[in-house]
């Protein structure tokens, strides 16, 4: 029941928000997201940390075809649900200083998207998963397409078509798998896990599924929609995309790729790892010379996600757990960084690194938050990024020492591009546009403080989260190694 | 062999161990949150008191250690990361080595904190400075107290961060920021090596906790096992970065951009010795890998020699000291390479005393000269700054290796061990020692003797520093004078205090490779001769410096003056920075632009857009099929039906 | 008087087949080659009727009334179709003063 409530509430709230006139919509939406956060925490409290799937909802959906509307939460889902319910209110709060046109639609779309995202993270039936996968896409299409910056229509269209193109392959694979299930067919997760397919079939099924997830993550070379979309979308849209939506791809691979076609994975893991590691280095090196802060963080995100993907496909416990914790960390860090970029842009009117400088002299609070989030992204110990990077690099290293060493370059390159950005923007002498820069307002602090707290929470006591997902990850590994 | 490290058996120890790093952390939080709000006096008090508190607690641990049966113990704080077989506790290990390092870090740290309260008193970001300094002490304490490699790594990166923040403390100035960034990134190169080393340790021994790793290594691994060599080399890469060894040393001279107390604390006394601490901590592994040790020795010697030659011609008072630090660190690695672990640590200690003293003295000079650091603008300062001069002289004598100052004993012991290992290395070590004495006295003569060469304004301003700055100088001067008696050479006394105290930490290495620890003492005659030679070398260097800079009052050439090619090469630090810039920085930058312009915009994106364009183009040409003429539709339909029937017929 | 099915059976089935195939082909050729909408329409009727004939023939040879029932259906549908179709053609003629299908190519591209 709790799962159903989690899924229904944002959608209902979205309808409610649509009725609100004017800028009051943001407050209603924020309130609704807070209620959802409480629901999420309630779920966490009631969650028994073992490998079972809890809060199950199993209703007939397309009854004739044996397709059930089956959703539930296990440890892996719970972390993603928590990430979503934690970030959405902050993202809504981060838009308080903007006055968007048609606010009711804007905030309704955000809430509607939350339903889609939560659906993806809780679905236990392939078609339910696919359904929510596409549901989540539609709101972000409108958010980016209607409230975005220049060139928004072209960029958003490309993003939309690209991801839909990928998901069609996934749908085809799901339909095929569905018809392979014995008896009156079923598309449930467990039914797919029990399938025994020969390795030739798994080989092509792997690519059908992988391409959908690879585009969403995005893994090199399927990433070209991402920097443009991140740059063009409004700040809230970028945060939704990078903070949560990107995790759909990783989560999808974890839940619907690795255990479903393990033989395919073992055939192609090498290729994927090579692609992922190319992505790590490629994204990082390109980020070094970017002038637009948003684009820089976008490329850094490609680099970070590459590492997560690499860890995922090593199929060892450190890799999967590292991926879980790094998804949380990356969500926190990237949302924080994009928010800070948004603050800087709204105060100075530019995101150009070369045009800024000396901001730190006016803004101790902003500087500290920026530095903490940046250090989290760079993976400094005792911040959240370290835990993930350490586990992921260790898993890649155990898979192949040389791959681990090359992937490790990310800790050097990451420092290079992040510190370059920080130095150019925050340090140095003030100039005309940064002269009157004011420190954070109360709402801005209200967004950044929880994020900073999370940076240290995950960094200092990762076991809070690792222990939640551990049983589920172990169970998944058993399925993969069956 | 599990008897080696057990958890502490009383809660009091746990609390003390926890409080030692926690106090500076609290100081960091108070000063960090209260920057510009707290009055300066209070900020300084908090900053100093927390570190002094840690020092007192460390003393308590140190003196309680014997009562504890001289037995190492660990204190678990909480379970930090646990994933499958990988278990990383957040816990501290107290043994002889960490106790010595604790005293060093908190002791020298306290002195430098007090000094900073005077030195930084005019800075508006006084509180920020103390908070960073406290954070540094916290990280450094984690580094030396951690009970596993990951904890060491935490401190290792933490001190790197503080170094970054403090080098770029005056962040309005772009060159300072660049120096800070350079330090952080170069350290990260080393850190990658360290990290990979940790991974390999885990892969090989299934744990990262010191006790387990060393037990396993001493039992399982053989001498010169390939894996052990790989581990030790990777760890040493980390040490190269942090301890500024060839080829990763160029950040340290640049790091002098930071405030002088920072240079003294971080870039001379404590952080840069982390690499030595790490090697000594991993002595079991290194003892098992003589190949790596030889490599360490060669790198150390090369660095010592190389940096000393650069130091000969530097004109910035802090740069001379920086290169001398690099050179002395090279010495320490040389000692490690010949397995004189304790001698190396002995030199770490004495070096911390006299180099901190020298840096703080230089700070006092810079303070008096209103920020001027160029030796060519100084001269004759001994009258204006008597205390500074006297203490600086002691520091200089100590680093030059003149008895009975601290540097003599540690350097002599170190060189004696090198002599036993290889005469050639010893000869080069002696050459370095000669250069050290020469450039240090060059600095002394240029700064304190002769005529004042600065502006009239600076002359008016000359003054001895306040007591808050001179008292630390005096404390360090005393330590530099008597510090050497911790380890008297065998000819004077059979009781080498430090060596005996540290001896238990090599127990496992001794069991693993007994042959490496077989005592071969030098005869007393040889020992006397070696001592005489090294003192003689230093004295000759001092006399030479006296003739050139004391008597003839030669002043180094002005900027832009014509120099001989060799002189120019050395003066420009062998163009290593330019080399790195050309070989690494520029290509990476070029690659970045190239990848973005040609691969991202030129290949991948066009392919993706190509799909879109293909579909558009396909539609554009296929639409002509829809001619609108009903007749053609009918024809196509009939043909289609015929085709289907035909296919049906065939198949 | 014989029953109608028996009368039909006095002619061999093959003849019906050939005959209705011929009719059908005439219809197709007419549809493809003529440009007047009304003639095309009549050709379509021709094709429908050839099918009707075939259905009737088979129905009587196999003594199965279903075929003939289909014929009635087809005739009813054809009648409706003629009504609608002719109405459209008349409207087209009123608008463009022609029933030539080749000038009705506004729906291209």
Automatic annotation (TrEMBL), chain A:
Membrane topology: Multi-pass membrane protein
Species for this entry: Rufibacter glacialis
Transmembrane domains' residue ranges: 67-92, 104-121, 127-147, 159-179, 204-223, 235-256, 268-289, 296-315, 327-344, 365-387, 399-419, 440-460
Molecular function via GO: NADH dehydrogenase (ubiquinone) activity; NADH dehydrogenase activity; ubiquinone binding
Domain NADH:ubiquinone oxidoreductase chain 4 N-terminal, first and last residues per copy: 57-117
Localization, UniProt: Endomembrane system; Membrane
GO biological process, one term: electron transport coupled proton transport
InterPro entries for this protein: NADH4_N (IPR000260), NADH_Q_OxRdtase_chainM/4 (IPR010227), NADH_UbQ_OxRdtase (IPR003918), ND/Mrp_TM (IPR001750)
Protein name as catalogued: NADH-quinone oxidoreductase subunit M
Coiled coil: none
UniProtKB/TrEMBL annotation, chain B:
Gene3D superfamilies linked to this entry: 1.20.5.2700
Residue ranges annotated for the NADH-Ubiquinone oxidoreductase (complex I) chain 5 N-terminal domain, each copy included: 80-130
Catalytic reaction list: a plastoquinone + NADPH + (n+1) H(+)(in) = a plastoquinol + NADP(+) + n H(+)(out); a plastoquinone + NADH + (n+1) H(+)(in) = a plastoquinol + NAD(+) + n H(+)(out)
Cellular component per GO, a single term: endomembrane system
Source domain of life: Bacteria
Compartments it resides in: Endomembrane system; Membrane
Domain NADH:ubiquinone/plastoquinone oxidoreductase chloroplast chain 5 C-terminal: 457-553
TM stretches of this protein: 13-30, 42-63, 97-117, 129-147, 153-171, 192-211, 223-241, 262-280, 292-313, 320-342, 348-366, 387-406, 426-448, 469-492, 528-549, 630-650
Topological relation to the membrane, as annotated: Multi-pass membrane protein
InterPro entries: NADH_UbQ_OxRdtase_chlpt_su5_C, NADHpl_OxRdtase_5_subgr, ND/Mrp_TM, NU5C-like, Proton_antipo_N
Domain NADH:quinone oxidoreductase/Mrp antiporter transmembrane, chain residue ranges per copy: 148-436
GO BP terms: ATP synthesis coupled electron transport; electron transport coupled proton transport
Keyword tags: Membrane, NAD, NADP, Plastoquinone, Quinone, Translocase, Transmembrane, Transmembrane helix
GO molecular function: NADH dehydrogenase (ubiquinone) activity; NADH dehydrogenase activity; quinone binding
Keyword match Protein biosynthesis: no
Cross-referenced PANTHER family: NADH-UBIQUINONE OXIDOREDUCTASE CHAIN 5
Family: Belongs to the complex I subunit 5 family.
NCBIfam families found in the cross-reference section: NDH_I_L, PRK06590.1
Protein name as catalogued: NADH-quinone oxidoreductase subunit L
TrEMBL record, chain C:
Organism superkingdom: Bacteria
Matches recorded under InterPro entries: NADH_UbQ_OxRdtase_chain4L/K, NUOK/Mnh_C1-like
Keywords: Cell membrane, Membrane, NAD, Oxidoreductase, Quinone, Translocase, Transmembrane, Transmembrane helix, Transport
EC number of the protein: 7.1.1.-
Reactions mediated catalytically: a quinone + NADH + 5 H(+)(in) = a quinol + NAD(+) + 4 H(+)(out)
The keyword Transcription is annotated on this UniProt entry: no
Cell compartments where the protein resides: Cell membrane; Membrane
Membrane topology classification: Multi-pass membrane protein
Pfam families per UniProt: Oxidored_q2
Gene Ontology biological process: ATP synthesis coupled electron transport
An example Gene Ontology CC term for this record: plasma membrane
Transmembrane segments: 15-32, 39-58, 70-93
Quaternary structure annotation from Swiss-Prot or TrEMBL: NDH-1 is composed of 14 different subunits. Subunits NuoA, H, J, K, L, M, N constitute the membrane sector of the complex.
Function per UniProt: NDH-1 shuttles electrons from NADH, via FMN and iron-sulfur (Fe-S) centers, to quinones in the respiratory chain. The immediate electron acceptor for the enzyme in this species is believed to be a menaquinone. Couples the redox reaction to proton translocation (for every two electrons transferred, four hydrogen ions are translocated across the cytoplasmic membrane), and thus conserves the redox energy in a proton gradient.
Protein name as annotated: NADH-quinone oxidoreductase subunit K
